[in-house]
């Protein structure tokens, strides 16, 4: 594993950072950073990319990660900032903030796919990093579980859109609800599919 090799060279502690919600059209983008000291604790057996894990497995792993990690942090960027600054800015900003929130500070950062400008320590972007480095996998689980929890809360706050089911991604059911109900306060209004669905709602009203 990358983090083991880096730690053996005295470059630790090694943090992994990842995000969840980049491809959604509602709700925040959430980034997490995590430092896991080798060897990996037995409580984290089965840890891998959060997208490969069942919801039950993620729910089991999240508290275990928080318990055994040397440090972890979760940061959310809300739709208003995404709309104002763009999703790439939100993505990189959330990752920077998550890494900056770690205590102790890492000596090296492994990033899933991205190079993050402005980090105060060396970094290595790894394609498919959430499957190749345990610290990135842990960060991916923390980000995914935190964001899913937010979207379940949004389902209560803005009923009718199905946020608890699709988590803000642009499913057919979500787009149909958006066209029917109009945008909720958590929709990313800069996104073309959100604007198109809202325009479809306006067109339907004009035809009545």
Automatic annotation (TrEMBL):
Please share the entry's free-text remark on the cofactor.
Answer: Manganese or magnesium. Binds 1 divalent metal ion per monomer in the absence of substrate. May bind a second metal ion after substrate binding.
InterPro entries per UniProt: RNase_HII (IPR022898), RNase_HII/HIII (IPR001352), RNase_HII/HIII_dom (IPR024567), RNaseH-like_sf (IPR012337), RNaseH_sf (IPR036397)
| Recorded catalytic activity of this chain's protein | Endonucleolytic cleavage to 5'-phosphomonoester
Q: Where in the cell is it found?
A: Cytoplasm
Which residues are involved in binding a divalent metal cation? 18-19, 112
Entries under CDD domains matching the protein: RNase_HII_bacteria_HII_like
Cofactor needs: Mg(2+); Mn(2+)
Kindly name one Pfam family recorded for this protein: RNase_HII
The family line of this record is:
Belongs to the RNase HII family.
The role this protein plays is: Endonuclease that specifically degrades the RNA of RNA-DNA hybrids.
What's the name of the protein?
Ribonuclease HII
């Amino acid at each position: 594993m990358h983090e083991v090799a880096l730690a053996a060279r005295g470059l630790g502690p090694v943090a992994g950072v990842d995000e969840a919600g980049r491809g959604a059209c509602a709700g925040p983008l959430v980034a997490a950073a995590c430092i896991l000291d080798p060897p990996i604790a037995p409580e984290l057996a089965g840890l891998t990319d959060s997208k490969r894990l069942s919801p039950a497995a993620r729910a089991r792993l999240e508290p275990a990660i928080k318990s055994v990690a040397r440090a972890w942090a979760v940061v959310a960027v809300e739709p208003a900032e995404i709309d104002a600054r763009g999703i790439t800015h939100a993505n990189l900003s959330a990752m920077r903030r998550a890494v900056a929130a770690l205590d102790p500070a890492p000596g090296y950062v492994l990033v899933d796919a991205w190079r993050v400008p402005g980090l105060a320590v060396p970094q290595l972007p790894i394609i498919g990093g959430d499957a190749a480095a345990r610290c990135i996998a842990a960060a991916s689980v923390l980000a995914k579980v935190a964001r899913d929890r937010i979207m379940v809360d949004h389902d209560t706050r803005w009923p009718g859109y199905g946020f608890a089911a699709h988590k803000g991604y642009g499913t057919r059911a979500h787009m149909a609800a958006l066209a029917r109900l109009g945008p909720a306060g958590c929709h990313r209004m800069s996104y073309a599919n959100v604007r198109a669905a809202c325009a479809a709602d306006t067109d339907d009203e004009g035809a009545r």
